[in-house]
C-alpha cells in the first residue's frame, strides 16, 4: 500500500471518529430547543427525548411523557407545533 493510500484511509477514519461527537452535541442542542419550543406553546411534554428530522426546520419530536409533536416553520416563518 502506498503512503498516499494509507494517509487517505487514516484521514477517512479520523473524519468519521471526530464527526460522531459533533453530531451528538448538535442533536442534544436540537432536543433542548424542541423542548423549549413545545413548552412555550403551553403543550405537555416535560422533555424531548428523541427527534426525527423531516426537512429544514421540520421535526417530529417524542417526549418523555409519551406525547409526539410535529414541529415546523410555516411559509410565513412562524413556528408551528401540532400534536401527533
Mean pLDDT: 79
Q: Spatial order of the strands in the main sheet? A: 1-2-3-4
What structural class results from the helix and strand content?
A: alpha+beta
Strand content: 25-35%
Number of helices: 1
- How do the SSEs run, as a string of H and E? HEEEE
Biggest sheet descriptor: 4 strands, antiparallel
Write down the domain tally: 1
**How would you describe the shape?**
globular
Number of strands: 4
Share of helix, binned: 40-55%
Q: How many angstroms separate the termini?
A: 54 Å
Low-pLDDT residue spans: 10-25
Write down the Rg: 18 Å
Describe the overall structure.
There is one protein chain. Strands 1-2-3-4 form a 4-stranded antiparallel sheet, covered by helices on one side. The protein has one helix spanning 3-40; strands at 48-55, 58-63, 68-73, 79-83. It has one domain (3-83). The N and C termini lie far apart (54 Å). The model is unreliable at 10-25 (pLDDT under 50). It is α+β, with helices and mostly antiparallel strands and 84 residues long. The protein is globular and about 60 Å long. It is built from 1 helix and 4 strands; from the N terminus they run αββββ. A hairpin with a 5-residue loop joins β3 and β4 (79-83).
Amino acid at each position: 500500500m502506498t503512503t498516499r493510500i494509507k494517509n487517505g484511509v487514516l484521514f477517512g477514519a479520523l473524519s468519521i471518529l471526530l464527526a460522531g461527537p459533533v453530531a451528538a452535541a448538535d442533536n442534544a442542542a436540537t432536543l433542548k430547543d424542541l423542548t423549549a419550543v413545545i413548552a412555550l406553546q403551553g403543550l405537555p411534554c416535560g422533555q424531548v427525548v428523541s427527534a426525527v428530522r423531516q426537512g429544514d426546520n421540520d421535526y417530529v419530536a417524542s417526549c418523555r411523557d409519551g406525547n409526539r409533536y410535529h414541529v415546523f416553520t410555516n411559509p410565513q416563518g412562524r413556528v408551528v407545533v401540532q400534536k401527533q
